[in-house]
C-alpha cells in the first residue's frame, strides 16, 4: 500500500555531520557551529532540495566517545546549542521545510516543552514537529541533581513509561485550547470563551499537570511527534513518525510490519560522491583520521547518489514511507543529497518537483486532527 | 552632557490595559505581530524588546479570567525567532526561577545569546504560588520566604555554567586536529542549599559572556537581590517622587556589593498616549481609560479588593456597602497584584469615601484608582516628561507598554523619538552589536572556578 505513497525524504542535522572526523573535512565550517548563519545555510540547503523535514539533534549532555560519560578529547566536536531555539531561529528564514528539533523529556517539564513546540509552530506557520528523546545517562542526571535515574532494565522501563506520560501531557496541552477559543466579543467584554479552554488534569507517577496551556492551540493542531522505534517509545507514545535502523531490504520488511505509526522512516548514514570509488575513499579517510573507527547506530552507505536512489527505492517498495539521511559530513553530504540525490529521484518520478503543502502535516499527508476536548463537548 | 535615555518596548501580555477591542488591535499570538512590534522598536533604535511571562491562566471566582487578553507564546522560542528578523535590538524575556532548573535555563539563554549575536536578556522572576505549581513537577512547595533565596542560588548556578567555557575554548583548527583548547571545557560543579549539580555544560561562552539580567520584584528582598545581581530593574515606579525615591534606594544598595551606580539601570514600565496637542491627548487618554475599564472589568477589579462575588452590582451604580472578605482564600488566583492590597478593609473604606465625595459610580471609581497612562500629551510634552524624569534621576529610561499591538509604538517612534534625538539624549544609531553595548554595560570576565577531580 505504501508503494503508492510518494517517498518522503528528511535529513538529520548534527554538528559538523555524523562522522566524528567530519569537522576536519576541507568543506566543513567547524568555527561556525555555534552561529545562526551555519544552521540557516544548512536548512536552506535542505529546503532547496525540497526535503520534507530536518531533524536537529540535541542532548542534555556533552558528546562523547564513551558510553558512560563525557570524555576529555580535544580532537572532536564538543558542545552544541539548544535545538528548539536553532529551529526557531531558522523558521522565519525558510518557508516550506519541516523543522523537528529534539527535546529531551527526562528532567524537563512537559508544560515548557508543550508551549515551546506550539510556539515553534506559530513562528514557522505550521512546520513544527518534535523529536522525543529520553536521557538515561547518570552524568546528565547530575546536571539537574534532583534524581538518580536507575540504570538497568527497570530503570529504562521507568524512563519510557515517564516519556509516554510526558508525550500524552504535551498532546493534551496542545488541545487544551479549542481552535476558536478566542472570540473578542466586545458586547460581553470577553476576549476568550472559557468553555473552550480545558483543564487537562493529568495525574501520573512522575508528574501531574493541570493546564490549560498558556499558548493557544498551534496552527497544525498537533505538531507531528517523532521517536525511535528501538526502545518501543514510538509505539507507546503513538508517534506520527517512527525512525528505524534497517540493515537491508529484508530487515525493512520485518520492521515495517511491526510499526503502527503513519510514517516509518529508515535512518541511514551517508557519504556521497558522484564517483563511487571516491565516496568509499572519503569514508576510509574519515575513519582513518578518527582512528577509533565509527560505529553509528544506523547503517552506513558510501556511494553515488544514483546508487543511493536505487537503495531508497527498494526500501520504499518494501514498505517504508520515508528515509532520514544522516549526512556523515556537513555541508558536503547534504549538498550531495539536495543537488545529486533529489534530481536523481525526480528523474525517476519518485520525488516531488515543488512543495505541495505549506505545513509539515500537509507534506506528510497527515490531516489536521480534531481537538479531543471539542469532541467531548459535542458528545 | 545630559544623561542618555534607555528605551525598551514590552509586548503587552496578560493585563487589562490592552485595548483588544480597538479595530487596530491585531493578533497577540501570530508571529507577525511580534515581528511588527520588534521591527518598529529597532527602527526607533530602542535598546530592547521585552516579554513578560505567566505560567498559569488566571482565575477569578473559580473560573478562567476571560476579559483580558489570554494566551502567550513561549519566551525562548519567540525571542530566537525574532533574532532572525532583527539585527541589533536586545531580546529580553521573563523566565521564572521557581519552575525551572539552572542547567536548562542557562543552556537556553546561552543559546539565545549565540543565535542573536549577543542580544539576550533575562528578567528573573520568582513567582512561587502553588496554583502555578500545579502545572509543574516541582509543584508549589516553595515557601514565599525561600523564593529569593532560590532565585539568588539559581542565578549563581547559572553564572557558573555561563562561565564554564573560557573565551577562546573553541579552536576548530582542522589541520592540527584540535577542536577544543581544553578537553574539560564546560566542566562545572555547584552546590548550595538549593542545588547540587556537576558535569559538563554544552554551550561555549556566549557573545555577551552572560545575558543581561533584569529583575522585577519590588519588596525589600527583591531590591536587595537586584542590587546584588541585576544589570537593570524593571520597576513600577514611573512617577517623579516615587521614582526618585525608588531610584535613590536601589542605587544606594549597590555599594554593599562593591558595585558602581551605573552598573544597575532603573527602567520603570510606562504607558503613553499621544495627540496633536496636549488637550487632544488628554481626550484620547480618557477614551482609552474607559475602554480599558469596561463595566465588567470594573466589577472584576473591585472583586479583587473585596474578595467577594460582586456580579450582582451595577457598574454604573454605587460601591458595595459590605466590607471585603478577609477570612477566605483569595477569589483571584495567578495574579501578583492582589497582594498589593495590604489592608483591604481600610482601602475599601477609602474608596467608598472617595466615590461618595466625587459622586462616582463603581466604574468611574475604578478608572480613578487603577493605574493610569504615564505620559499623556503632544509629542513635545511627552519628550519633555521623559527627559525630565531621566535627568532628575527618577529613572534611567523606560520600558514602554503600548495599549494596542502590533502598531501601537509607531506614533511614538515617528514623533517622540526624533525629538529626543534632537536634544542629544537618545541615540541616532546603535554604537555596538550587543545589548550590553546599548545599555553601557561591560562584558563580564569569566570568573572561572574549574572543579577539580
Ligand atoms: C514591573 C514588573 C513586572 C513583572 N513581570 C512579571 C512577569 O512577567 N512574570 C512574573 O511571573 N512575575 C512578574 N513580576 C513579579 C515579580 O517577579 C515578583 O514575583 C513580584 O513582584 C513579587 O516580588 P516582590 O515581593 O519582590 O515584589 C513583575 C513585577 C514587576 C514589578
The named CATH superfamily of chain A = Luciferase-like domain
**Number of distinct helices of chain A:** 12
Number of domains of chain B: 2
CATH level-3 fold name of chain A: TIM Barrel
The rough form of chain A would be described as globular
For the termini of chain A, the CA-CA separation is 34 Å
**What's the total helix number of chain B?**
14
Biggest sheet of chain B, open or closed, and with what strands and sense?
A: 8 strands, parallel, barrel
- Ligand list: flavin mononucleotide
Instruction: Give the name of the CATH superfamily of the largest domain in chain B.
Output: Luciferase-like domain
What's the CATH class label of the largest domain in chain B?
A: Alpha Beta
Mean pLDDT of chain A, to the nearest integer, reads: 94
What does this protein structure show overall?
The complex is a heterodimer of chains A (379) and B (453). Chain A is of the alpha/beta class and 379 residues long. Chain A is built from twelve helices and 13 strands. In chain A, strand 10 (241-244), helix 7 (249-258) and strand 11 (263-272) form a beta-alpha-beta unit. The longest helix of chain A is centred in the middle third of the chain and has 23 residues, at 152-174. The longest helix of chain B is centred in the middle third of the chain and has 16 residues, at 147-162. Chain B has 453 residues and is an alpha/beta fold. In chain B, 52% of the residues are buried. Helices cover 36% and strands 15% of the residues of chain B. The complex binds flavin mononucleotide (FMN). The site of flavin mononucleotide (FMN) has 18 residues of chain B, from strand 5 and helix 6. Chain A: This is Alkanesulfonate monooxygenase SsuD/methylene tetrahydromethanopterin reductase-like flavin-dependent oxidoreductase (Luciferase family). Chain A: InterPro entries: Diverse_substr_monoxygenases, Luciferase-like_dom, Luciferase-like_sf, NTA_MOA. Chain A: It comes from Krasilnikovia cinnamomea.
Amino acid at each position: 500500500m505504501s508503494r503508492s505513497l510518494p517517498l518522503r525524504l528528511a535529513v538529520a542535522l548534527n554538528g559538523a555531520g555524523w562522522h566524528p572526523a567530519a569537522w576536519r573535512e576541507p568543506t566543513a565550517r567547524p568555527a561556525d557551529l555555534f552561529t545562526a548563519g551555519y544552521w540557516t545555510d544548512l536548512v536552506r540547503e535542505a529546503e532547496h532540495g525540497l526535503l520534507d523535514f530536518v531533524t536537529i539533534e540535541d542532548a542534555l549532555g556533552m558528546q562523547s566517545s564513551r558510553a558512560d560519560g563525557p570524555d576529555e578529547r580535544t580532537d572532536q566536536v564538543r558542545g552544541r546549542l539548544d535545538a528548539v531555539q536553532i529551529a526557531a531561529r531558522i523558521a522565519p528564514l525558510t518557508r516550506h521545510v519541516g523543522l523537528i528539533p529534539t527535546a529531551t523529556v527526562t528532567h524537563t517539564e512537559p508544560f515548557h516543552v508543550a508551549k515551546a513546540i506550539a510556539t515553534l509552530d506559530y513562528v514557522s506557520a505550521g512546520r513544527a514537529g518534535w523529536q522525543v528523546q529520553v536521557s538515561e545517562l547518570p552524568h546528565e542526571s547530575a546536571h539537574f541533581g534532583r534524581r538518580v535515574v536507575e540504570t538497568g532494565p527497570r530503570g529504562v522501563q521507568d524512563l519510557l513509561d515517564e516519556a509516554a506520560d510526558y508525550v500524552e501531557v504535551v498532546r493534551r496541552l496542545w488541545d487544551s485550547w479549542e481552535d476558536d477559543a478566542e472570540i473578542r466579543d466586545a458586547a460581553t467584554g470577553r476576549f476568550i470563551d472559557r468553555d473552550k479552554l480545558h483543564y487537562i488534569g493529568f495525574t501520573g507517577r512522575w508528574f501531574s499537570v493541570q493546564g490549560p496551556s498558556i499558548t493557544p492551540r498551534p496552527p497544525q493542531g498537533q505538531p507531528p511527534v517523532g521517536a525511535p522505534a528501538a526502545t518501543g517509545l514510538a509505539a507507546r507514545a503513538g508517534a506520527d513518525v517512527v525512525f528505524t535502523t534497517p540493515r537491508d531490504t529484508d530487515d525493512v520488511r520485518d520492521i515495517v510490519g511491526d510499526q503502527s505509526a503513519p510514517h516509518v522512516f529508515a535512518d541511514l548514514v551517508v557519504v556521497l560522491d558522484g564517483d563511487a570509488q571516491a565516496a568509499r575513499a572519503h569514508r576510509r579517510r574519515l575513519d582513518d583520521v578518527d582512528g577509533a573507527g565509527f560505529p553509528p547506530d544506523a547503517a552506513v552507505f558510501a556511494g553515488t547518489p544514483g546508487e543511493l536512489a536505487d537503495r531508497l527505492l527498494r526500501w520504499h517498495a518494501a514498505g517504508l514511507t520515508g528515509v532520514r539521511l544522516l549526512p556523515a559530513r556537513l555541508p558536503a553530504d547534504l549538498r550531495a543529497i539536495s543537488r545529486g540525490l533529489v534530481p536523481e529521484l525526480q528523474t525517476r518520478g519518485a520525488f516531488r518537483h515543488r512543495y505541495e503543502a505549506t505545513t509539515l502535516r500537509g507534506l506528510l499527508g497527515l490531516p489536521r486532527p480534531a481537538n479531543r476536548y471539542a469532541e467531548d463537548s459535542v458528545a | 552632557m545630559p544623561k542618555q535615555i534607555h528605551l525598551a518596548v514590552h509586548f503587552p501580555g496578560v493585563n487589562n490595559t490592552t485595548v483588544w477591542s480597538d479595530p487596530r488591535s491585531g493578533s497577540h499570538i501570530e508571529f507577525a505581530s511580534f515581528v511588527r512590534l520588534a521591527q518598529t522598536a529597532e527602527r526607533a533604535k530602542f535598546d530592547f524588546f521585552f516579554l513578560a511571562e505567566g505560567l498559569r491562566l488566571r482565575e477569578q471566582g473559580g473560573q478562567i479570567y476571560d476579559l483580558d487578553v489570554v494566551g502567550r507564546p513561549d519566551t525562548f522560542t519567540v525571542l530566537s525567532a525574532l533574532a532572525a528578523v532583527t539585527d541589533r535590538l536586545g531580546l529580553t524575556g521573563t523566565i521564572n526561577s521557581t519552575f525551572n532548573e539552572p542547567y536548562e535555563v542557562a543552556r537556553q539563554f546561552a543559546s539565545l545569546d549565540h543565535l542573536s549575536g549577543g542580544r539576550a536578556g533575562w528578567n528573573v522572576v520568582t513567582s512561587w504560588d502553588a496554583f502555578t505549581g500545579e502545572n509543574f513537577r516541582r509543584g508549589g512547595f516553595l515557601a514565599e520566604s525561600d523564593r529569593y533565596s532560590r532565585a539568588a542560588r539559581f542565578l549563581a548556578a547559572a553564572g557558573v555554567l555561563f562561565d564554564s567555557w573560557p573565551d577562546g575554548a573553541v579552536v576548530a583548527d582542522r589541520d592540527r586536529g584540535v577542536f577544543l583548547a581544553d578537553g574539560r571545557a564546560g566542566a562545572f560543579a555547584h552546590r548550595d542549599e538549593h542545588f547540587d549539580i556537576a558535569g559538563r555544560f554544552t554551550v561555549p561562552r556566549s557573545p555577551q559572556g552572560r545575558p543581561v539580567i533584569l529583575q522585577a520584584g519590588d519588596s525589600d528582598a527583591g531590591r536587595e537581590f537586584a542590587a546584588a545581581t541585576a544589570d537593570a530593574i524593571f520597576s513600577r515606579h514611573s512617577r517623579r517622587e516615587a521614582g526618585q525615591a525608588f531610584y535613590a534606594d536601589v542605587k544606594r544598595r549597590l555599594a554593599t556589593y562593591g558595585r558602581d551606580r551605573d552598573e544597575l539601570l532603573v527602567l520603570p514600565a510606562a504607558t503613553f498616549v499621544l495627540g496633536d496637542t496636549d488637550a487632544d491627548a488628554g481626550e484620547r487618554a480618557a477614551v482609552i481609560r474607559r475602554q480599558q475599564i469596561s463595566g465588567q472589568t470594573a466589577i472584576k477589579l473591585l472583586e479583587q479588593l473585596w474578595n467577594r462575588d460582586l456580579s450582582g452590582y451595577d457598574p454604573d451604580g454605587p460601591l458595595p456597602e459590605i466590607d471585603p472578605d478577609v477570612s477566605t482564600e483569595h477569589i483571584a488566583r495567578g495574579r501578583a497584584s492582589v497582594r498589593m492590597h495590604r489592608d483591604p478593609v481600610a482601602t475599601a473604606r477609602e474608596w467608598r469615601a472617595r466615590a461618595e465625595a466625587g459622586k462616582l459610580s463603581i466604574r468611574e471609581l475604578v478608572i480613578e484608582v487603577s493605574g493610569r497612562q504615564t505620559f499623556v500629551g503632544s509629542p513635545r510634552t511627552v519628550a519633555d516628561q521623559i527627559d525630565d524624569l531621566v535627568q532628575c534621576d527618577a529613572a534611567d529610561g523606560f520600558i514602554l507598554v503600548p495599549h494596542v499591538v502590533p502598531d501601537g509604538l509607531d506614533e511614538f517612534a515617528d514623533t517622540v523619538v526624533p525629538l529626543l534625538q534632537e536634544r542629544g539624549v537618545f541615540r541616532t544609531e546603535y554604537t555596538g552589536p550587543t545589548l550590553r553595548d546599548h545599555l553601557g554595560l561591560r562584558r563580564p570576565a569569566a570568573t572561572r572556578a574549574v572543579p577539580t577531580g
